[in-house]
Specification:
This protein has 322 residues and is an alpha+beta fold. It folds into 2 domains: 3-126 and 183-318, paralog of FGE (formylglycine-generating enzyme); 128-179, no CATH class. It is built from 10 helices and 16 strands. The protein has a 5-stranded antiparallel beta sheet, covered by helices on one side. The protein has a 5-stranded mixed beta sheet with strand order 7-15-12-13-14, covered by helices on one side. Strands 8-11-10-9 form a 4-stranded antiparallel beta sheet, with helices on one face. A hairpin with a 2-residue loop joins strand 1 (32-41) and strand 2. The longest helix has 14 residues, at 15-28. It is globular.
Length: 322
């Protein structure tokens, strides 16, 4: 068994040794190796390989045995988070302890053995298919084309017809997509044909938190200085969203509560977001972003149909330990 594919041993390798290991993985999985890169974020870091295959970037994430789940603060809430929750609890006339309420949303504490993986760096869209204006599935609907023409003369950036078609204005012109209804089993079968998988809920929690024992990867409280989706101020408009930037594994993960990440389970299950329910419900920043915690309970969905507006996926390849 190659112990170097696991975090403790992998982190101790010289870069020349990592380079050779990454080149062997690239050859084994028919990928282009783009080189080593160091990712350093929230007190964790890794120097690892970046790969490319079929237009996607993957990063190597070593395996580890970690504690997942949450039952109490490791450090404690910062003052701003305490103030926010106390204000909400007064508004709701709730007497429950905030820690107790948060615990109800968290998965139980458990040990998990996580294998090494090649992991898609970005979340990918589901159900929407890029097409050209002369696609017969578009031209069959004259009312869609009329709406597209009206959009072209408007000041709007995008137009979406619910679960039907979408047009977006880009620097190069217009990008048009049509919506294909897809269910969970179809997604899994399609990925298997490509030699890909989805992470399980435990693997996802590791990719998101790296085994952190705090509520979020950076600590127990919300960091109100960072630029967040849905809470941006005008002066931050052109800044990148901090949580969307690569984490310590080089992954853009759990940065927008509206985006649910589909994971591998016995039935359709998501992590990393709640479709924006908490934010829409006026719960504020801390509780609005709580579903992005690596420890939040995975959400088992009621039916099998994926929602292209809220559901996204991340392809992985589990590395066989020889």
């Amino acid at each position: 068994m190659n112990e170097n594919l696991f975090r403790t041993q992998f982190d101790q390798l010289e870069n020349t040794e990592k380079q050779a290991l990454m080149e062997s993985l690239a050859a084994r999985y028919d990928m282009a190796f783009l080189g080593l890169h160091t990712f350093d974020r929230w007190g964790q870091s890794s120097t690892t390989g970046i790969f490319k295959k079929d237009g996607r970037e993957f990063v190597f994430v070593p395996g580890d045995t970690v504690t997942l789940g949450w039952e109490q603060f490791a450090v404690g809430l910062n003052q701003e988070s305490r103030d926010e929750l106390e204000y909400l609890f007064r508004e709701w006339e709730m007497e429950q302890d905030p820690e107790e309420m948060i615990r109800e949303s968290m998965a139980p504490v458990r040990q998990a053995a996580i294998g090494p993986m090649l992991v898609g760096r970005e979340l990918e869209e589901l159900c929407w298919e890029l097409v050209t204006m002369d696609d017969p599935r578009l031209t069959a609907y004259p009312d869609w084309l009329k709406q597209f023409r009206d959009f072209a003369w408007s000041d709007l950036d995008s137009l979406t017809m619910h679960k039907s078609a979408r047009i977006e204005r880009t620097e190069k012109g217009f990008q048009i997509c049509i919506y294909n209804r897809t269910d969970y089993d179809e997604l899994l079968a399609g990925m298997e044909k490509q030699g890909l998988s989805l992470p399980t809920a435990d693997e996802w929690a590791y990719l998101c938190g790296g085994g952190c024992r705090t509520l979020f990867p950076w600590g127990d409280g919300m960091d109100y200085s960072i630029h967040l989706h849905h809470f941006e101020s005008p002066e931050d408009e052109d800044k990148p969203f901090d949580m969307e930037e690569p984490n310590f594994f080089g992954l853009s993960i759990a940065y927008d509560p509206y985006m649910r990440e589909v994971v591998q389970a016995e039935q359709f299950t998501t992590c990393g977001g709640d479709g924006g329910r908490s934010i829409c419900g006026g719960l504020g920043i801390f509780l609005g972003f709580l579903p992005c915690s690596p420890h939040c309970k995975p959400e088992v969905q009621e039916d099998k149909e994926l929602n292209g507006d809220y559901d996204f996926y991340r392809p992985i390849i589990r590395v066989e330990v020889i």
